[in-house]
Amino acid sequence: MMMVMSSWSHARLALTAALALLVAIGCGRSPYDNPIANNSQQPDKILFDKAVENIERHRYELARITLQTLINTYPDSEYIAKAKLAIADSWYREGTSEGLAQAEAEYKDFITFFPNMEEAAESQLKICEIHYNQLQKPDRDPIHAVRADQECRQLLLRYPNTVFREETEQLLRNVQEVIAEGEYRVGMFYVKKGSFRAGVNRLQTVTDHYPLFSRADQALWLLGENYERLGDNFEDQQAAAYQKIVSDYPLSEYVDQAKDRLTAMERQTPDTDPDRFDLHSYNLENRTYPGRMGQFWGLFRGKPNLGTAAKAGDPAMTTLMPTTPPGILAAAAAATGVTPSADVTVETISGPSALDTEPDARLNQPQSGGGETESEEGERN
To answer: What counts of helices (H) and strands (E) characterise the chain?
Structure first.
């Protein structure tokens, strides 16, 4: 009986110790991301170690004071770069709005001073994540979506071989899903309002710039319908929208209707692009949709639903630029008789110009006291 009780006591002690270890691991402080494994006892290393410990213990202000002391006291230290990065990380981990703004500035400084270090790409990724983590729904302020799009593209352009490439590309696809959804909703607003030119302008921009947008096929279908409303002059654009549905989105629910429209218009029905078929199929298979409770609580959340964002394909690598609604330039030319594209020209001046031969208009100023100039008096007489 004593042996059984002893075994049970040992088992309880082992179980308690295991639970304590799990709690310590789960609730403990996360280690700092960029420590330096070095047993040096130099004073700059000691300062850096103290700062890292303070960061792990969430004493961010004290950590920054220690790191700044290191930078000011030992300007030639091998820990300068790590210290500047640790200051940025401390602001990032603090997580407040002010802290994130300060972290972005510190990361940009680090990239400026140490552009060739491996941590430079990671710093650029952190800047992207700062704005990505503040994304709002498509019907809200798009400032963080636009900034995240810019910063993620900057990472891919500046560091094309970075180990963070796949992660950044997915962040970029998610961000561009939000931006494209916002443009799509604006286009639908104009269409419902009856402003068809403005509506097709937005829808055309979305489908041209963001082909990975989850509702690109629906936008193309609406684009074709609204080009039809603009008249026969836009029949080519209408047919192009239907043809793009057939070739680029072969699994879309609008494919059969698009083919029927093309047949009725006596336009060629294109073949399906095999690469686009595989891409469209993969992205459809990997979409996720919220359940009933997720849809309900989603009404109260500020974060967008990114389950339908593309999981493969090259994201857009250029900035979304506003365009002129179709027919506006032609209408302006017909009304004024001036071709808008020919309004401004550039040419090299050879020989004397009007600046050399004509009098300076600034010298022909009215006299004080309201008197007339000589030229005005001559004209009056």
So the answer is: 17, 0
Q: Which two tokens stand for residue 60?
A: 């961010």
pLDDT at 22: 46
Longest dimension (CA), the chain: 134
**Cα–Cα distances in Å, from 275 out to 207, 247, 256?**
18, 10, 20
State residue 161's pLDDT score.
93
Q: Which residues contact 333 (CB under 8 A, 6 or more apart)?
A: 339, 340
Give me the chain's average pLDDT, please: 84
Q: Are 152 and 131 in contact (CB under 8 A)?
A: no
What secondary structure does DSSP assign to 16-64, as a single string? HHHHHHHHHHHHSPPPPSS--------HHHHHHHHHHHHHHTT-HHHHH
What distance in Å separates the CA atoms of residue 95 and residue 102, rounded to the nearest whole number?
10
What number is the average pLDDT over the span 331-351? Answer: 58
Q: How far apart are CA 373 and CA 375, in angstroms?
A: 5
Tokens of 302: 């500020």
- All residues at 6 or more sequence positions from 90 whose CB lies less than 8 Å from its CB, including other chains: 55, 60, 63, 64, 67
Q: Which two tokens stand for residue 266?
A: 């006596």
How many whole angstroms separate alpha carbon 292 and alpha carbon 298? 10
Distances (CA, A) of 67 to 75, 88, 98: 11, 11, 19
Stronger pLDDT, 334 or 245, i.e. the higher one? 245
| DSSP annotation of 272 | P
Q: What's the CA gap between 174 and 135, in Å, rounded?
A: 10
Walk me through the domains of the chain, giving residue ranges and CATH numbers. Answer: 39-114 (1.25.40)
Cα dihedral angle (177, 179, 180, 185), rounded to 10 degrees? 120
Question: pLDDT tens for residues 107-144?
Answer: 999 999 999 998 999 999 999 999 999 999 998 989 99
User: Can you give the pLDDT at residue 344?
Assistant: 52
Least confident of 96-105, 179-188, 298-307: 298-307
Total residues found in the chain within this entry: 381
